[in-house]
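Reply to dn_fold:

You asked what the input looked like. This is it:
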Amino acid sequence: MRATEKRKSTTARHRTKAAAAAASKPKPKARPKLTVEQEKAYRDFEHAVSLVYKQEYDKARGELKPLAEKYPQDRELVDRVRIYLSVCEARTQKAPRGEAADPYLQALLQYNEGEYEEALKLLDKANRGNPNDARALYLTACAHLAHGEREDGLKLLQESIRIDASNRYRALNDPDLEEIRTAEDFVDAIGD
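and this is what came back:
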């Protein structure tokens, strides 16, 4: 009978230790919910992007331009709209893609296509032109992280947040950073 009591006591201690360990782990922060207006903006954006993929560039451009004007406070949406607008412009003008003037936009296109090394080269040029451009630093951080350069990526992410605190929100909601969002070094890099 004592052996049974001893096993119960040991099992209870293990459960207590496991519960304490689970409680001490940092909990991932919940994503803020989108407003009805934001949801509509993203649905409209998705529809415009579907037109780009159908190669209906003029229609897509007609839907994208009003989005950038109507939601200027949503930087992530505006950045993505600008990218797809530049794609529409390039496709309708038959201009080679490499001739886009803004190295940040070129880098964003390369990043979205998974060409991280090329994106980093372009971002180096963009960062030399404006070393305090928080959006370019943020994209550089994401490109380093995607390219497997975690330490460099987290340092740059931290720097981009120092320059523009809204990048913390972007990092917490960026689907490209989903896999590392609960990692201790990521949480340390983005701060409170």
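Residues 34-99 form one domain.
Hope that clears it up.
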